[in-house]
Amino acid sequence: MSEPEALAERYARRAVGDRYSLLRPDVWHTVQERQRAMLRGLVRHGFVDVAHCRLLEVGSGAGGNLLELLRAGFRPEHLCGVELLPERHAAARAVLPESVTLHAGDALALDLPAASFDIVFVSTVFSSLLDDAFQQRLAAAMWQWLKPGGVVLWYDFVVGNPRNPDVRGVPLSRVRALFPAGRLSAERVTLAPPIARAVTRVHPGLYTLFNLLPPLRTHVLCWIAKP
């Protein structure tokens, strides 16, 4: 079984219910924190006129991240996504403007021009890829699609979940190995989801309090600049 086939099988057996619903306080705290960090990073890396930026999201899911980027000022005709799972691709197509380009299937099968994107965005994808060689090939393709002076925008967790063998944390050392030519800057974000779910049941404001402790943050937001 290929890694994309295995990944589709692993996703098919996940039963998440409403765990990622934006109506849950732990989820909207997590999403809003990540949004703020991304917006700060865009400005810090010189992307102040995002209407002219071309962005590709690898693993674009149901289109939620691309919708956020539209609200941040990216133009739909400059946004592109690729999603492996047909049902998620269909969900994204139903909510995004037609001028957003969406591809279905394995990202490595895409025939995209080299150096065609200012930003290549990948969010909680590599933690679901358990084949190291496939990870390396995907990272190399992403790097090829990126323009010189562009950035890979990476969001993923560094701490594994021992109760879920279908995922594994991706430490910063691995990110550096995947993009050896990149200049990497990173910040630790996102209160550990089990803690976030527990404390926000008591009061939503406790997310912010507990998130003040860096050891309790399980994800990193990385900017990997291409010289």
Structure description:
With 227 residues, the protein is α/β, with parallel strands linked by helices. The chain has one domain: Rossmann fold. 37% of the residues lie in helices and 22% in strands. It has 8 helices and 7 strands. Strand 2, helix 4 and strand 3 form a beta-alpha-beta unit. The model has no long low-confidence stretch (mean pLDDT 95).
Provide a quick synopsis of the model.
The chain has helices spanning 3-12, 25-44, 64-71, 86-95, 132-145, 172-178, 193-202, 206-210; strands spanning 55-58, 79-83, 101-104, 117-123, 146-157, 183-191, 217-225.
Major sheet, described briefly?
7 strands, mixed
The number of helical elements comes to 8
Strand percentage, roughly? Answer: 15-25%
Give me the secondary-structure category. alpha/beta
Helix-strand sequence: HHEHEHEEHEHEHHE
Number of domains: 1
The CATH architecture name reads 3-Layer(aba) Sandwich
Morphology:
globular
Helix content: 25-40%
CATH topology: Rossmann fold
What is the topology, as strand order, of the major beta sheet?
3-2-1-4-5-7-6
CATH homologous superfamily grouping: Vaccinia Virus protein VP39
By DSSP, the count of extended strands is 7
**N-to-C span:** 36 Å
Question: What's the rounded overall pLDDT mean?
Answer: 95
Low-confidence spans: none
Rg, please? 17 Å
Oligomer: single chain
